[in-house]
Amino acid sequence: PLHISTAINTVQAAIKHNPDTSVTNTSSMATMTNLAMVSITSLASAHTQFVNWAWETVSRLHLHMMDRGILESRGILEGNVDIFSQLLDYDLNKEVEIVAAGAVRKIPLACYTSLLLTQLGHSLPELLDRGLALLKVVQDAGRMDHVLEILMYITPLLMSDLSCIENAAFKNILTTLLSADQSYISMAKSMISGTFPGPVTREAGNMLEKMIVNYEKYGKDSPKEIIDLWVKILTSLPGWNVNNSALFLLDILCSHSFFNPPIHSATLQVTNDLQKKFLLESSGGIINWITGVNYSGHKLLFPTSTAQFPWLAYFFLQSEDIHCRETGLWAAMVKQLSEQKPLEDALVSASTQCETSPPLSSQLPIYRWLQQAMDTPPDHPMVPIFWQRFFQLFLSRPVATHEGEEPRGVGMSFFVGMLN
């Protein structure tokens, strides 16, 4: 086909006329410098402009099967033999021989094109075995936009085997991608605005939005599996809960989850599991080992409110709320407060009664919802939900002990001494 021969000829010309492309500097300094320079074409030499033109030309030719029609996309995901037969064989096809040789030499454009044209970017086993190494070469060349493009094509392949999320090379690529803006901004302050999100994170967000909209291309009835996949990918990365780029992307995913009940439930289940896992891993110590109760409070995934990411905050605060209710701690607290006990005494008594490690009083869901409601920008659509959750807790009252009894609410007991 014409578009394939055009791509191959373009790569061959780039290799022939640009000897520098055969050398890949993998240092982070070189990566970020290249990333900064890619956008400054007016200052670039004709040599650099030609290389950039070659990259853009190959990118616009719709070479990858996932960048074509629904038939091709679904065929790749279903393992359709007819669709796979249209790929060029990385090892045997003479037509792609020069491109493959360039990829072996770690020429970034050749690596990128090999992923688009051959089984290395379409078959999950080949991708994990050899394809991700080529993608890393593209990333080390500073071509973050093309890394995101390839990720958009290859990530749906992981839906067939979620264990691949833990692949070390895959996680390394994503971790580098999510830290790119920090390095980019610190090294090129005079070239770009330092506002958040940075250019790479913003483009990653655009990639997620596009994948969510195009769920039918993947043979799905809803974007549930795509959202679930990316939530699990991002929360599997080291330090994800303190990485603003990761949180920005998770906030996008959660915004799509919130209004769709099945996806909402699936996302909440993921956050519940993460919450329990984090609490389990962070609990311990000699006091806990002896008594079974930890009085140092909970180590939370998000110790403070996350005003920048309200959609994400909702799901994790909801998980904390659910945990507090499921352990019986909240109902016991309400009962203790209705008996006029001070807050701290009520918390200790309730945790002893429920045989659970209590949070610090400041970690109780009523304060967490309140803080998030006050810190979130007032025009954000989640603000009414945060206030609703707060008042659901504030208006809590103990269960009546006999017919006709109307126990008083205990909300003000949480604010004794705070208000005049």
Number of helices: 20
Structural class: mainly alpha
What is the count of β-strands? 0
Low-confidence stretches: 22-33, 39-43, 284-295
Output the radius of gyration.
27 Å
Strand content: under 5%
- Cα separation of the termini: 78 Å
Shape: elongated
Q: Roughly what is the average pLDDT, rounded to an integer?
A: 87
Order of helices and strands: HHHHHHHHHHHHHHHHHHHH
Helix content: 55-70%
Q: Explain this structure to me?
A:
The chain is mainly α and 420 residues long. Helix content is 60%, strand content 0%. It has 20 helices and no strands. Helix 1 runs antiparallel to helix 7 and helix 7 packs antiparallel against helix 8. The longest helix is centred in the middle third of the chain and has 22 residues. The radius of gyration is 27 Å and the shape is elongated. The termini are far apart. The relative contact order is 0.07. About 7% of the residues have low confidence.
